[in-house]
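Dear Dr. V.,

Thank you for agreeing to look over these. As mentioned in my earlier message, I'm a first-year student in the group and I'm still getting used to reading structure tokens, so any feedback on how I've presented them would be very welcome. I ran two proteins. I've put each sequence directly above its structure. The first is here:
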Amino acid sequence: MFTLANTLAALTALGSLALAALLPGGTACPPKRLADTGLYSDPATLTIAPEVLAYSPQYPLWSDGAAKQRWIRLPAGTSIDASDPDRWVFPVGTQFWKEFAFGRRVETRWMRREADGSWSYATYVWNAEGSEAWLAPERGVRNACEIRPGLRHDIPSLSDCRVCHQGTPGEVLGFGALQLSSDRDPLAPHAEVPAPGSVDLEALVQRGLLENLDERWSKSPPRIAARSARERAVLGYLHANCGSCHNASGPLSTLGLELDVRLARDAAAPALCSTLDVASRFRPRGIEDPRRLIAGDAAQSVLRLRMASRTPVSQMPPLGTHAVDEAALALIDAWIQGELAVDRGSSKISTSPVQGTHQGN
């Protein structure tokens, strides 16, 4: 027998299904095949659909040396609300893809914004021939491929995806005003050459895909303010690889470790204020008075020590990597022994952590 409550529940369910059917993929659940997500116009030839836009962040996330390609697809007639420069709001139905390759395609990660405003996550595993990819199990896939002798790549579980993406109020990483600035950092570790046709901040504005963006960022693309080109690259690397978890608004905010760069902030760069000569809660063996960063002493700086570790209890980042990022480690070492040593004890590099193109370093 139908009651009013049953009827309302049925109508709600039908309404949810109808909304989900309007989204690419046609269902609130991830499609079983990558080819059904809308990435390709011709899956047989892996031709990217014309409405799917490639992009490349200027500070890539380290993933054991994986070669990556990234794409975004906005529903027709929609745009991104950029009124908060550090947390863009994406329309329902927005999709992101990120392909990982280690000599061959291994996995493609996918995100979609659902009708209730939440994000769905899925990962697709490529076959050995690189001809098609199928939905990975929720637990992920351990040892999916060899990345170098003795090291193998793990395809993440859904919980791993959420841990990384839900460390900030906005769950999209690597796609924002700073990462897409046309004033790209030439010293950024593992910097990529954007593919032809890729969109950056300027292209998004020209295409009418951003609304409410502060005019200063369209007139003068944002860049990180620093005392040197090397310091700019260090702060950008920490922002991309550490700031999604270590920030003032996420679950780890009580640590007081802020490694993200925020365009709306009007203060000294938080990465320096929260690390330089600041006591570390993590206590490495053999260090009696651990500090996050010690000017001129890379060997005793806990931030550097954890970057150099791949022991599960101490390594940073804790997920998504089995190999130390040697290029970034060399950059951090040179910075600690260089700029930080010159200005020992100083924690302020500028009145603002980000500046426009024509203001120099």
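The second protein is here, in the same arrangement:
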Amino acid sequence: MKILRTYLLREHLGPFVVCLFGLTAVLLLGNVLKFAELVIAKGVSAVDLLRLLIYRVPDMLSFTIPMACLIAMVLAFGRLSADYEMIAVRASGVSPARLIWPMAAVGLLLSAFMFVINDRVAPASHLAFRRQLKAIGIKQPTAYLEAGTFIKDFAPYVMFVYQIRGRTLHQVRIYEPQPNGPTRTIIAERGEFERSPGGRGVQLRLYRGAMDEWDPTRPGSFYKVAFSTYAMQLQTDIDDPQRIGKKLKEFTFRELAEERARLAAQGIETLPISLELHRKVAVSFAPLVFILFGLVFGLRLHQHERLQIYLWVLAVFLVYYLGMIGMHAAAIRGWVGPGLAMWMMNLAGALGAGLALTRIARE
């Protein structure tokens, strides 16, 4: 039996590694395409882009490890069934139940690994990702902006840029709402960002335009002034990326527990913290749940049912993750407690897979 267990684990290792790297590579490719414009059109260095991609990997593993577990189980058992090895195992008197426990143990080990990633690695990498984005925005502000949208990052101004080419803004419109008067407007054909001499904020140099100036004879009114060059100081919320505060998903398990206790002592609602705390732990057990479903599909797999099984695999992915989103929304509305909401999909999945495996073991 030890030889059989070792053989089964080895047969699943190859598909798992291939699926894990393949799925992660697909998600990374999507991010590469998303960030490619930063390098091609906005002058961001390839090194900065590489850092962003590396910081995204731990978040992706939270999805790709469970997916790889399920797909690898189906692929491995599909090969064993195609080569009639599963028939040979049953014919030798080995019960399918004896194949379940080694794979369940692997699921527990992967879940423990996932907990470390969700608790330590993913929060740190997500925070580093946001800080890197902010650093890029400070060093190259045009990379942080998007043409064709109203930009509100430089309070009290609201900026609209029709086109961004490299480091140059074209057809710039800047609006400064006034509390007791008309909105002040600055229009320029083009503009370029520069670092401020004092190192605080950024300086926007505008070329060939016009702006509103206060009319001292008529309070609350403006008159137009044309300019060939005009420099204006813009302040950002945070000039040092290292000063960016943490979001809840960037807290460790211990930090979440401490923050919840501190806020509860002050009489402050702690539901969001409780949801995030339970989510970190519940999602860590997704590999175990998916391996159990993989065993169900794998032990039931027949050559002519392969397409049907893969449709069931897709259904498991969708139901699990959409269910987590739905239960999160239900907890926010107060329909269900945070603990039950975040663990519901794991409990339902483990119960369904467990009943199916019990039925298979009795055959």
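From my reading of the second output: The chain is about 60% helix and 15% strand. The CA atoms of residues 157 and 234 lie 8 Å apart. Does that match how you would interpret it?

Kind regards,
E.
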